[in-house]
């Protein structure tokens, strides 16, 4: 199975597993659903990658970081459950599964599954981004919108779209449900690797908030800020974020 296909297949199947966990634990506490979802999806992805790509390294939010990955040519970067809070709240669909492949310094494949929406967005050919409305839509966390996103909204006369996980936010830009996702204040490589791979394949702008490239397989897995937006908005957004 080719790498693009494997990423999409594993993200989709992990999502199906998480839907089953959600149904199985419908009467459990949100904390129990979170813990079970994280563990079962991580175990599934780790097992499947070990079988399908035994020579490759893996970096997972729920796994132990092995420093040997820093000398690997190929690294799978996965978030078994992005948006545990949303997953734990029955009925919410803004959570995701991320599976990405980094090879020789670049993201070369990625998939973002949105299991509760029945959708997987994947490289190399995500759906074309629909036309944008006249008013800029800035997608933000429904619980803690970062100040930098509010600055972009105010400077560019936009409106906010509230959503859960990072993967769901990036997917909303690809799907044409929002136009800009800007974040600062704390993320890790697994939060953005697969969404960035899909966004790039869709022709979107991706960068740090100062305009520098997003780099993966670094010794410190923290990657605290990013911009993903329609390319026609990139210069205006960067004028706000880089100045801040």
UniProtKB/TrEMBL annotation:
Keyword set, alphabetical order: Hydrolase, Magnesium, Metal-binding
Binding locations of Mg(2+): 61, 79, 81-82, 191
Keyword check for Hydrolase: yes
GO terms (BP aspect): 3'-phosphoadenosine 5'-phosphosulfate metabolic process; sulfate assimilation
CDD domains: CysQ
InterPro entries hit by this protein: CysQ/Inositol_MonoPase, Inositol_monoP_metal-BS, Inositol_monophosphatase-like
Catalytic activity field: adenosine 3',5'-bisphosphate + H2O = AMP + phosphate
GO molecular function: 3'(2'),5'-bisphosphate nucleotidase activity; metal ion binding
Record-linked Pfam families: Inositol_P
Listed cofactors: Mg(2+)
Name the UniProt record assigns to this protein: 3'(2'),5-bisphosphonucleoside 3'(2')-phosphohydrolase
Organism: Mycolicibacterium chitae
């Amino acid at each position: 199975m080719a790498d693009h296909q494997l990423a999409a297949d594993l993200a989709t199947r992990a999502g199906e597993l998480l839907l089953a966990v959600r149904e199985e634990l419908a009467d459990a506490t949100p904390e129990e659903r979170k813990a079970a979802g994280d563990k079962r999806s991580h175990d599934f992805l780790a097992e499947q990658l070990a079988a399908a790509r035994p020579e490759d390294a893996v970096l997972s939010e729920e796994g132990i970081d092995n420093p040997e990955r820093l000398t690997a040519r190929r690294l799978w970067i996965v978030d078994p459950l992005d948006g545990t809070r949303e997953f734990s709240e029955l009925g919410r669909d803004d959570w995701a599964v991320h599976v990405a492949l980094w090879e020789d310094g670049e993201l070369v494949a990625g998939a973002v599954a949105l299991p509760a929406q029945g959708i997987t967005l994947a490289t190399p050919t995500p759906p074309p981004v629909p036309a944008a409305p006249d008013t800029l839509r800035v997608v933000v966390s429904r619980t803690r919108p970062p100040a930098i996103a509010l600055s972009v909204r105010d400077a560019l006369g936009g409106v906010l779209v509230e959503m859960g996980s990072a993967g769901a936010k990036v997917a909303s830009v690809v799907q044409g449900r929002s136009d800009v996702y800007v974040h600062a204040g704390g993320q890790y490589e697994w939060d953005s690797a697969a969404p960035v791979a899909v966004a790039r394949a869709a022709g979107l702008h991706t960068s740090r908030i100062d305009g520098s490239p997003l780099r993966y397989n670094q010794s410190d897995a923290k990657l605290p800020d990013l911009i993903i937006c329609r390319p026609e908005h990139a210069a205006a957004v960067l004028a706000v974020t880089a100045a801040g």
